Amino acid sequence: MTPAETRPRVEGDREQEILDATLELLGEVGYDRLTMDAVATRAKASKATLYRRWGGGKVALVIDALKAAKQQPDLPDTGSLREDLRAAFCGMGGLTDDETVSHFTSILTAISVDPEFATAFRRDVLEAKIAGSRTIWERARARGELRDDVDLELIEPALAGIVMHRVFLLGRAPDADTITRVIDQIILPAATRRP
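RESULT FIELD:
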């Protein structure tokens, strides 16, 4: 059992309301200024309820909120790498979603200043995201779309890296067209077999 599974649950929809309030505050004030008090106030919950459920404090609460927000029922499986990448990165929760980008901004700050959060984020949130991405790429490999020499560890994060570079360093918000151009002009030529 993980630590999250051994903590008492909050009754009914209250837990999701608390997690939603946490994400709202994360987007509004960032990780550093997010407090258990502020979440309790926003969610109209007692601090005792929050600490009883998330005894690990802010780290445990934010990680659970991110995990709940990132759960997607199914990975895209369109039959083509291009369309799977477009569906994963341009759909709800993808890189064209303002809320996702806002949360990611707070996460970048948090992982650079809070080692406990960085460890928990990489273990509990990022690993699942990487596993999903790996599935998309392994399906493409099984279909024969990829070159034999493609290093998945290098190519998998390239799309997100390019888009996030444009967001954080160049100040250019991502849209579906930009993501599609990155897929078509950089990712696919680097990874796939030539026709």
